[in-house]
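hey can u check if this looks right to u? its 138 residues, i copy pasted from the old doc so theres a chance i mangled smth
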Amino acid sequence: MSNVQSQRSEWAYLKSMTIATAFTGLCLMSVINFATAEIGALLLVPMCLMPVPLRLKVWTFGTSAHVACNLVLTSLGFPPVAFYVLKGALKGIDNIRIGEFWTWMEALSEWNSATFVYISMVHLPCWGLCMLILLHSS
C-alpha cells in the first residue's frame, strides 16, 4: 500500500471512530435526556460527517466549499462558540460577557445536569476528533 493510501485510510479510520463515538454518546444521552441529545445531534452529526483533511492537493470550487463548510461546522460545534453565537442571536452582541459560558457550565455542574455530562463526555471528545481529522496531514 502506498503512503498516500495509508494516510487516506488513517483519517478514514479516525472519521469512522468519530462517527461511532458520536453514535454511542447520542444513543446513551437520548435515554438520559432526549432534548439534550436532539439539540446536540443537530450540531454533532454534520460536524462528524463532513470533515476531511484540509491539506488538499487540488483546490476546486467544490473542495473550497467543502473546506469552508468544515471550518464553519467545527467552529460552531465548539461549545463556547455555539453558546456565544446563540446568546448573541437571542440577546444581542452588546449583552455578552466573556465569563458567561464558565458561569453556565458551573451551574450545569451544580445542578447535575445531563447537558453538562453531554458536553464534557460526548460533544468535546467528538469535536476533538473532528479537529484531528481536519488537521491530519494527507
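Residues 3-134 form one domain.
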